[in-house]
Structure to design on (384 residues):
């Protein structure tokens, strides 16, 4: 019954999201006693220019 | 003074959002002793392909 | 089917939360074409010392 | 690198959280091209009295 | 190591976001004992028509 | 007018939170054209046992 929110960079395909939603739901049921009905997984597809890590904005990062 | 965040599928009209914001704000004032000034209602319009329920991604659901 | 998150100061009674959850759910159904099943309202009861408004922490505010 | 937030009822053990964090992280790496370093999983342990489903507050639900 | 989420109206430039991410990260390190590595700042660029303040939807406000 | 949410480990003092709220608000005003009135900074004080990084739960980490 829980609600899971995923913040990640935009760019994943529908097929990737499909498998991700399934896998996270399975993890919740197996490890957290969650019932799958009414269990939401909401993905926020965030542009790189709106995400900073260690003080550096996405487009300026040199490690990705 | 609270902050309310609404995650829902994209597709609502501006008029629907207008009435929703008004109604949620009224509910907060009436039932939660909230002051309306500085009370935010923020709507996240989430694409169907970024939302899973019961392990099934939006576009794959057969009940909607 | 949406998910609504309410951030507010701790201190509301269970009866206030009961009525708030009902009123917000009704608002979602009436104004946003939401189905009530699988519609979550999650309340975060935030201590005053963990909330700032206009740069002033809760316990330091003189207007409340 | 993403950030995953889990809203669920309080009451899970540390061991359950340990396995859940591991499983969600693995799911992100396998299905969403995520790098595990800097990948956060944050759990909000929400009291039943602060969570409503389908307009009904946690303590009033008869199905759980 | 924390995660900071900023909800604001869309319309800021990349340069504004660059400086904002840097300044918030610095504030976390200086005032909250945070380590900068793995410290995320995530910006949600919200359309005005999806944000209400004091019960009034963004496009209807007369003070901005 | 924006809303900033900070997820961090519990344990900061009120004085640390006071200075953090002030510094983040200043950063928003200086770099993001934000008006300080109605600008919220909400801190979620998360227990270590409810936070995983790189698949490892807080109490199991050896780097902190």
């Amino acid at each position: 019954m829980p609600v899971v929110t995923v913040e990640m960079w935009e760019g994943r395909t529908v097929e990737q999201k499909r498998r991700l939603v399934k896998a996270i739901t399975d993890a919740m049921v197996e490890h957290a006693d969650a019932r799958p009905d009414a269990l939401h997984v909401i993905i926020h597809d965030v542009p790189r220019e709106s995400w900073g890590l260690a003080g550096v904005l996405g487009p300026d990062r040199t490690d990705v």
